[in-house]
Amino acid sequence: MANRFDLENRTALITGGAGLLGPQHGIGLALFGSRVILVDIHEPHLELAKERILSEVRDAKVDIYKCDICDEEGVLKLHHLIAQSGQHVDILVNNAALNPKMGEPGQACLGSLEEYDIQSLQHEISVGLIGSVICSKIFGSAMAKRGNGVLIHIASDLAIIAPDHRIYSETERIEDVTNFKPVGYSIVKSSLLGLSRYLATYWAHKGVRSNCLVPGGVFNNQPEPLVRNICKRVPLQRMAESHEYREALAFLASDASSYMTGQQLVIDGGRSCW
């Protein structure tokens, strides 16, 4: 049974590889033997992400590439570079996304829909959704030609539930909320569910599976009142630690989930039960 989780001789490409969860996804896959390719637009952060993986999996095989996934020509060049190195992508993890922080210095909008900057929304959709389509188109097509592959899209609990904006006020009264969760995040993450289902039926006969990982909120030193309000809404009464999605991702990437496609793996501490 353990062999069903074996990812030896497989290569996984992770977009947004330099973000909060990118290195954790890399660790999770490397622990089961996969070669990992981290892709991000922030090159210095990529080096740190690689070091983070190697600090936990010393014999991990990790490559890093700077690439703007919103640029289809750039992603095609990346595909060719990987092919020239003698590799091909067996597992694509569409992880890249923007998650604007509310109330940042100089930010004109505090998340309210009435004042939301449409250019910012377009950028969020471009990175989180269009970038995922481009990567799926290029790497997924290659998988289909080979007759096997796995697409994993990192959604969010906010893809299946609405944001409860009351958590952003210490009084938990909607009337007192000044900083709202930006609408772009819900749009992008919900859209990934549709993209995943589309690709699941589009390439099923070609041996390519497509699923969504739906994580809950990850603790990242958020303000104490916000953490407290979130935990009230989670049956397990806490936020996730960043490492708690590693094995779930390995499950979706491996033959252990060989009969699973077009589905959602929800790991949110039970929040969406209520």
CATH topology: Rossmann fold
Indicate the mean pLDDT.
95
Query: What string gives the helices and strands in order?
Result: EHEHEHEHEHEHHE
Termini separation (Å)? 34 Å
Tally of discrete structural domains: 1
Question: Which percent range describes the beta-strand content?
Answer: 5-15%
Q: Report the CATH C-level class.
A: Alpha Beta
Query: What's the total helix number?
Result: 7
Structural class: alpha/beta
Q: Name the overall outline.
A: globular
How would a textbook summarize the main sheet?
7 strands, parallel
**What is the CATH architecture term?**
3-Layer(aba) Sandwich
- Strands across the major sheet, in which order? 3-2-1-4-5-6-7
Catalogue the unreliable spans.
Answer: none
Explain what this protein looks like in three dimensions:
It is built from seven helices and seven strands, in the order βαβαβαβαβαβααβ. It is 37% helix and 14% strand. It has one domain (2-273): NAD(P)-binding Rossmann-like Domain (Rossmann fold, 3-Layer(aba) Sandwich), CATH 3.40.50.720. Strands 3-2-1-4-5-6-7 form a seven-stranded parallel β-sheet, with helices on both faces. The model has no long low-confidence stretch (mean pLDDT 95). It is α/β, with parallel strands linked by helices and 274 residues long. The longest helix has 29 residues, at 118-146.
